[in-house]
Amino acid sequence: MKTILLITSLCAAAMSSHAQNIRTSAISWHITQAFDINTGTTTDVTDTIISISTSQLQWQTNGSTKTFAVSEVIGQWTDIDNNGEIVYEAGNESMRGTVTFIRAGGAMRIRLMMTGETLIAYEFTISAYQVQ
Description:
- The model is unreliable at 4-17 (pLDDT under 50).
- The chain has one domain: Porin (Beta Barrel).
- Strand 7 and strand 8 (107-115) form a beta hairpin.
- It is built from one helix and nine strands, in the order H-E-E-E-E-E-E-E-E-E.
- By secondary structure, it is mostly beta strands.
- The protein is globular.
- It has an eight-stranded antiparallel β-barrel.
């Protein structure tokens, strides 16, 4: 009985040590498609969004990087391998809005809604992610 309890405890500890918490990790999210909410068009892309714990977001697109300071994080998502959702309120000198990270039914996506001179609204399809 003690052996079974020890094995169960070790397995639980091993699983929780592999859980990646978006609030405490730097994660590169690799994007393969961008759905433009404004126009209703989908485009194949090779963009990356990097979430750096609760402090910064970087959107690498078309050879440039847009950096956003995070002002607030709404929600908890302690294991990105499981379904969950978290919203970052962020902005820079020209844009402000939300970036929502979502995993539901095995599919991962990011919804980016930024306003500045114009409304930028995308839903990105995530092909993979890499914890840095």
